[in-house]
Design brief:
Number of domains: 3
Distance between the termini: 29 Å
Mean pLDDT: 88
Low-confidence stretches: 1-5
Radius of gyration: 24 Å
Number of helices: 13
């Protein structure tokens, strides 16, 4: 581990300034404390005629080690006909944050929580998102319950939504659950101590693997971009860690994709307008074809997610070290996701990367405003009440959400670079094994393999490294870092050619 104390750079202040620069309001507005006090003074929510008491079910949650804003919990049941019944409990945020309230207006402006690595800038105050609207362990909460059945082929059917009173009985984390499910780690402490919980999580994994296989058959993309996070000890960033996909992250992803599909289809069948999350058919498919040709694979002239995924799977097996960079290139060429209004009887453009047509965000209302909107639309539908938003309202909200999600990505990306520059500063002069990730008119870029950070190759302080191409393995020396700009400069020490 390496100390960063000798570099006086305030990452939290930089993150706060970035938030403002990109159009966020990182500080909650005047009057927040008064509104919070009223919400906290409300009596605990007891079951009513439209709320089923489901607290006896063995609910659990799986999230990041550091997550405090728990949006969903899960439970599954094996049926005699071979199908698996899945229930997703989603935190009822709307019941505490009514439409038109001060906090609702702030959330509608921000649209998302922003995770900068050094500080979370929450869409809703932590007293709510980490407190009374979070599905915290051993706390009774009102939730929207999304139910569906998964058959042996992975097909999802019999989707429904209803209100429930739930209790999270085990808060679990991706790394330990994933290692256990994959057979290369012990059962997490709570799982090891409870045979019923162990069986429950195994059954959930079984359902998720069925659905994952089904989506891959329909062309879902197996992408593997690498996410990094700061390693903090005693309030000091000491290193950069890597978060990789595993069976636990896949379990939750599959459950949420299916749940969001159930909600979208309910709206479709009821003739209710909603907001959908889409990734359009890639406009730059020609460039994806070129990318594949350069690696010895011919893709169809027309966009074909199944053919693209077959290519990706082959490349992952052939060159696993460089696969995250290929994944990132494909992600960029597909273009960013966006939120759109989908009117009754209007076909959704769908989500190209997930290979699904019906997809609305509904499972993370503590951290995303579209999910609160979806929650309100669903509650009005269930109550046979007037819908809370007009089509014009929904269109404006969708556009705002797309804009601010793009801004959040920019803030998070620049903060990742700044954190890396701070962490690596004490290691100037050290050498690292790296791989070339980009060559363009601006210079040659490399990714160190440990820790996982990117930087530019320089020669005498100027961009320079002739004769290298993407995928080449190199040894580089760290020569400088600039946390304010998020720059990391390496000098070439040696290379051994392509992958």
């Amino acid at each position: 581990m390496h100390s960063t104390k000798n570099l006086n750079f305030n990452l939290i202040a930089a993150a706060h300034a970035d938030m403002i620069e990109h159009g966020f309001q990182p500080d909650f507005p005047p009057g927040t404390d008064t509104e919070l006090a009223k919400i906290e003074a409300q009596a605990a929510l007891a079951p009513s005629n439209d709320v089923q008491d489901l607290r006896k079910l063995l609910w659990s949650s799986i999230d990041n080690d550091t997550s405090k804003d728990l949006d969903q919990i899960e439970w599954a049941e094996q049926l005699q006909d071979g199908r698996i019944r899945v229930l997703i409990g989603v935190a009822d945020v709307d019941v505490r944050v009514p439409k038109g309230s001060l906090l609702d207006k702030h959330a509608q402006s921000e649209t998302t929580s922003v995770y900068t690595g050094v500080k979370v800038f929450p869409m809703l105050p932590p007293e709510l998102s980490e407190g009374i609207t979070s599905l915290n362990e051993n706390e009774d909460r009102v939730a929207d319950v999304i139910e569906y059945l998964v058959d042996e082929s992975g097909a999802v059917s019999d989707g429904k939504v209803y209100r429930g009173l739930v209790r999270n009985q085990a808060q679990l984390a991706y790394p330990s659950v994933g290692a256990w499910l994959e057979g290369h780690g012990p059962a997490p402490e709570k799982v090891a101590a409870n045979a019923d919980l162990a069986a429950q999580v195994k059954l959930q994994d079984k359902a998720a693997q069925r659905m994952l296989g089904s989506r891959f058959q329909h062309g879902a993309l197996d992408l593997e971009t690498i996410e990094t996070h700061p390693v903090v000890k005693a309030d000091e960033i000491v290193d950069i860690g890597t978060q990789e996909k595993n069976r636990a992250t896949s379990l939750i992803e599959e459950f949420m994709v299916a749940a969001n599909g159930v909600v979208a289809r309910i709206f479709e069948q009821a003739g209710v307008a909603s907001i959908r999350r889409i990734v359009r058919t890639p406009k730059r498919w020609d460039r994806i074809i070129e990318l594949a040709n350069g690696l010895g694979t011919k893709l169809p002239e027309q966009p074909d997610s199944k053919a693209l995924n077959d290519f990706l799977l082959a490349q992952k097996k052939k060159d696993p070290d460089h696969f995250p960079d290929l994944s990132l290139a494909v992600v960029k060429l597909m273009g960013p996701g966006e939120y759109v209004l989908v009117k009754p009887n209007e076909e959704s453009p769908g989500h190209f990367g997930l290979a699904v047509q019906d997809y609305t965000h509904s499972t993370a209302p503590n951290r995303r405003f579209p999910d609160i909107v979806t929650q309100r639309i669903m509650k009005a539908h269930l109550a046979k009440a007037q819908q809370p938003y007009s089509e014009g309202d929904l269109n404006a909200i969708a556009q705002r959400c797309t804009l601010m999600e793009d801004a959040a990505r920019k803030v998070e990306r620049v903060m990742q670079k700044r954190i890396a520059a701070v962490v690596l500063h004490p290691r100037i002069g050290q050498t690292f094994k790296a791989i070339v990730t980009g060559v363009n008119q601006y210079g040659t870029f490399v990714r160190a393999l440990e820790p996982h950070v990117e930087g530019m190759l320089v020669n005498g302080g100027k961009p320079g490294a002739k004769g290298l191409d993407v995928g080449d393995r190199v040894t580089v020396k760290l020569v400088s870092t600039d946390p304010q700009r998020g720059f990391i400069d390496f000098a070439l020490q040696g290379s051994r050619g392509g992958p």
